[in-house]
Design brief:
- The structure is a single chain.
- The strands form 3 sheets. An 8-stranded parallel barrel has the order 3-4-6-9-10-11-12-13, surrounded by 6 helices. The chain has a two-stranded antiparallel ribbon with strand order 1-2.
- It is 31% helix and 14% strand.
- The chain has helices spanning 42-51, 84-95, 144-163, 178-183, 198-201, 203-219, 242-252, 281-289, 304-311, 322-326, 330-335, 358-364; strands spanning 12-13, 19-20, 24-26, 57-64, 76-77, 100-106, 123-124, 140-141, 168-173, 225-230, 259-262, 295-298, 317-320.
- The relative contact order is 0.14.
- The chain starts with 11 loop residues before the first strand and ends in an 11-residue tail after the last helix.
- It has a single domain (3-364), classed as TIM Barrel (Alpha-Beta Barrel), CATH 3.20.20.70.
């Protein structure tokens, strides 16, 4: 291996004592490939196993914690105990290839397609439809008791992940879903304990974290990872600003989490509002975190040199998403000194060779520009 890539392969011990074999994670990506009942398919298992052989950690696609929280067709389910054997199959496949297995848990909130949730009952912090994402549904405002039930559901989903043999969970507080909706002044205009000031808008995310942590203490027999993913800014006005996020991250950094994971399309993107717009979001986050908790960065890191440059920022981990769709052996090629052979454009004739489930292949090849090579 070329020494300039050595930083990618340094082991890292998380705050809870778990050691990750390298600094590379597979980013969570919706794959549309589970059965209608939420159980994983054999194609899905093969897809994950193939991409688990080089990375230190695999973060799965989102798994809904309640039936009302489903966001996509073909989504992994973790909303009931009968799915534990299915979840165990997925965890075993990932861990069998040497990676840590992390289940991403979420509720889609106002981003749920009505046809995917019971009684077409789309719920959110308030009755404000999304401006982004193409879902015009006007959601129903959750009652306080329903909010408390969803918090409990995150705990139950964590218990199922533990019983299924996962090494951790990632709380999905990003990409416009329910946890982010509670933090956002666009979607959350409540006047109770869950809305109002930026501190009150943190109440739901912090309650979910507390419930997940309590569940881990109660059920896990050994160290179990808890990560939290967030989106730094929203384009809407009102919407989450970089200033809001830096306040949230400052609080999260002292909550005993094992890592924070910023959701970005471009690792080097800069802040839009309420922060130093001459600095990258990654840099602003690092300044706020100040080494209190590891940070995972992501966003269009396609080549070995891209990844090496990202590591030079001092970030603890990088996550690869589209890169591992295009080239499942991305990590191994660098490790073996063959980084020049990394593919950075999707082979449109490579579905079977790349172990793609049919549903995922149809989606990514129908969205021009999302994955390089798709026009």
């Amino acid at each position: 291996m070329n020494p300039k890539y050595a930083a990618l392969f340094e082991p890292y011990q998380l705050p809870n004592g778990i050691e990750l074999k390298n600094r590379i994670m597979m980013a969570p990506m919706t794959n549309y490939s589970s059965n209608p009942d939420g159980s994983v398919t054999e194609d899905e298992v093969a897809y994950y196993a193939r991409r688990s052989k080089g990375v230190g950690t695999v973060i799965t696609a989102v798994a809904n914690v309640t039936a009302s929280g489903k966001g996509f067709p073909g989504e992994i389910g973790c909303d009931r105990d009968e799915l534990i054997p299915s979840l165990a199959k997925l965890a075993k496949a990932i861990k069998g290839e040497g990676a840590k297995a992390v289940l991403q848990i979420f509720h889609a909130g106002r981003m749920s397609p009505p046809e995917l949730v019971p009684n077409n009952d789309v719920v959110a912090p308030g009755s404000i439809p999304a401006e982004q994402g193409g879902n015009p549904t006007v959601p129903r405002e959750l009652t306080v008791s329903e909010i408390e039930e969803i918090i409990e559901a995150f705990g139950e989903a964590t218990r199922r992940a533990i019983e299924a043999g996962f090494d951790g969970v990632e709380i999905h507080g990003a990409n416009g879903y329910l946890i982010q909706q509670f933090f956002s002044p666009h979607s959350n205009r409540r006047g109770d304990q869950f809305g109002g000031s930026v501190e009150k808008r943190m109440s739901f995310p912090l309650a979910v974290i507390e419930k997940v942590q309590h569940t881990v203490k109660e059920y896990a027999k050994g160290p179990f990872m808890i990560g939290y993913r967030f989106s730094p800014e929203e384009p809407e006005t009102p919407g989450i600003t970089m200033g809001d996020t830096l306040q949230l991250v400052d609080v999260l950094s002292d909550k005993g989490l094992d890592y924070l994971h910023v959701s970005l399309m471009d690792f080097w993107s800069k802040a839009r509002r309420e922060a130093d717009t001459s600095k990258t979001r990654i840099n602003l986050l690092q300044e706020t975190i100040n080494n209190r908790v590891p940070l995972v960065g992501v966003g269009s890191l396609y080549t070995a040199d891209d990844a090496a440059k990202a590591m030079e920022t001092g970030i603890e981990f990088i996550a690869l998403g589209r890169e591992l769709l295009i080239d499942p052996e991305w990590v191994q090629k660098i490790e073996q000194g063959n980084e020049a052979q990394i593919n950075t454009v999707l082979d449109l004739n490579g579905k079977e060779a790349l172990d793609f489930p049919e549903a995922l292949w149809k989606v990514i090849t129908s969205v021009p520009g999302w994955v390089p090579g798709v026009k």
